[in-house]
Design a protein that fits this description.
Blueprint (H helix, E strand, L loop, with lengths): L4 H9 L1 H8 L3 H15 L6 H8 L3 E5 L5 H7 L1 H6 L3 E5 L2 H7 L6 E4 L6 H10 L1 E6 L4 H7 L7 E5 L7 E2 L6 H10 L5 E5 L23 H18 L4 E4 L20
Parallel strand pairs: 1-2, 1-7, 2-3, 3-4, 4-5, 5-6, 7-8
Helix pairs in contact: 10-11
């Protein structure tokens, strides 16, 4: 699909600052994008399927922050009595499956979500795989094991089958992806943007936490707030129990989402 205008604007406004602050290498990001593109070239995914799935619906998007388990418990009744589109950012998918919820979409850079969840979603629903400079090995090893329902994302310029929707972290990128397909509302859960790491956001392949994590999360929050400002037609609500306020997404109690 063509690069969304907001993806182009995100790249212009955010990417140079992010590279400078987080020591990203554009050439490595592009190499990872091209690797993913090559692996996806035989898959015949159709963006209109996603547009028909998402357009006009409320979507609830679960990040993998420390509030995730609280939010899953708090939203249980609402989820059982409504029919929202359920979206998971990376490792949050594992928590959803353990709670008996099947996400319609997983957005992942492959470092936190289990292979089991990725495989299941790529065959029964949808997965957006993100390519960035330091996950080429994961792309090379995991993507060939997945089913047909895979879309590619990048943080540099788009190519035919890998799209820059905007967004830096799996959480804010998930909001960009879903927003592109016309939901009526987007309910944010498990997205703390604080200094504490959630159990489901931990990298399964690298031990320890990067010293740059707080800077990355600050950019993720700023990125999400830019999306909210740019999409006034979408009603954003934040039900994350703890964490930071997100400008443009008012905090709501679980029982008062709408």
């Amino acid at each position: 699909m063509n690069e969304p205008p907001i993806g182009t604007e995100w790249f212009r406004l955010f990417y140079p600052k992010i590279c400078a602050a987080l020591n990203y290498d554009q050439a490595l990001d592009e190499a990872s994008r091209d690797l993913l593109s090559g692996l996806l070239k035989q898959r015949k995914t159709d963006p209109e399927i996603l547009r028909n799935l998402i357009r006009g619906r409320d979507a609830v998007l679960f990040g993998a922050g420390p509030s995730l388990d609280y939010d899953l418990n708090g939203l249980e009744n609402w989820l059982n009595n409504t029919d929202p589109l359920i979206v998971a950012a990376d490792g949050a998918a594992d928590a959803l499956y353990r709670s008996g919820l099947n996400p319609s979409i997983i957005i992942s850079d492959l470092d936190s979500c289990s292979l089991q969840s990725l495989e299941k979603n790529s065959r029964e629903a949808f997965v957006f795989v993100h390519a960035h400079g330091d996950n080429q090995a994961l792309i090379r090893n995991i993507v060939p094991e997945l089913g047909e329902n895979i879309y590619g994302t990048t943080q540099v310029s788009s190519v035919a089958n890998v799209t820059n929707f905007g967004g830096l972290t799996d959480g804010d990128r998930a909001c960009y992806v879903v927003s592109e397909f016309g939901p009526s509302g987007l309910i944010i859960a498990g997205m703390d943007f604080g200094s504490n790491e959630g159990e489901y956001s931990k990298n399964k392949y690298v031990s320890g936490t990067s010293s740059l994590r707080p800077t990355k999360l600050a950019f993720g929050k700023e990125s999400l707030e830019f999306l909210i400002q740019s999409k006034p037609e979408i009603k954003f609500v934040n039900v994350t129990k703890f964490g930071e306020e997100i400008r443009g997404a008012p905090k709501r109690d679980y029982a008062k989402i709408t």
